[in-house]
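Now for a concrete sample entry.
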Amino acid sequence: MRIQRVNLIQDYIQEHQSVSLDTLCEVFHVSKNTVRRDINALVEKGLIKKVYGGVTALTPPPSSQKVLPYEERDIKFSEEKDALCRTAAQFIEDGDIIYIDTGTTCRNIIDYITDKECTIITNSLLVATKAIPYPNLNIISLPGKLKRETLSFVGTECLDYFKRYNIGKAFLACSGVTLENGLTNSTTEEYIIKKEVIENSRENYLMADHSKFGIVSLMTFAKFNQIQSIITDQELPEAYQEYCAEHNIDLIIS
C-alpha cells in the first residue's frame, strides 16, 4: 500500500511540478508525518526537491502525461464515440441513478436519454450543461476545481460526494485498456475520481472505441474484471473476447 501511495505522490508532484504539503495531505488523505516520510523516500531517489512548505519535481512531466485540449480530443473518432453513447443509452431506464464520466466519449449520452426520468451524477461541465434543457433529467454536479483540459471538476470535494449517493450504473471512459494493466488514465486527479466511482457503483460500463485497446496510460484506476460491460465500436482481439467470456463481462459492439 505504501509503495503504491509513494508512486502516486511522485506522479502527482511530477504532473503539477510544485505542490504544498497541505495539498498532498488533502489529496491522499494522510497525515503530514506520513507525507514527510513518503517525500523523504522520493528525495533520496533524487526525484523531487524539498522547498519551503512543499516540494518541486526535478524532472519535467513526461510527454505521455500531457492531456490534449478538449477540442482536439473531441474531433478524434467522433462518429464512433457518438455510436457508443447511443448504445449506452439503451441500458438506462426510468428511475436509474447513473454516473456519466468526463471526456468526449461519454458526453453525448445525454442526447439519447432526453425522454428518460433519471438522476445523473457527473463532474463533467459539458454533461451538466447538455442536460439543462431537460427537467426530467435530475443533475447532481460534483463540486471541485475546474480542470480546463478535461472540462471537469476535480478535487477531494468530489470524493466526499460519492459516499453520499448510491450509483446504480456508471458509464466510464479511459485513456487506455489492456488485460494486464486494466483501465488506465493519464492524470492523478481524474484517476482518483474514476477509482472512487468504480468502488461506489453497482454496475460499471466501460465505453472505449477500438483505439483505446492495447494502450497503457499512467495509472490503473480499475482492474479489467471490475467492470461488468464493455461498449466498443469494433470486435476485439480474441484474447479480450476469451477473457470477457471467462469473467462474465458483457461485450457490446455499437
Observations:
- Residues 220 and 227 are 13 Å apart (CA to CA).
- Residues 61-68 have pLDDT under 50 and may be disordered.
- Residues 2-16 form the longest helix (15 residues).
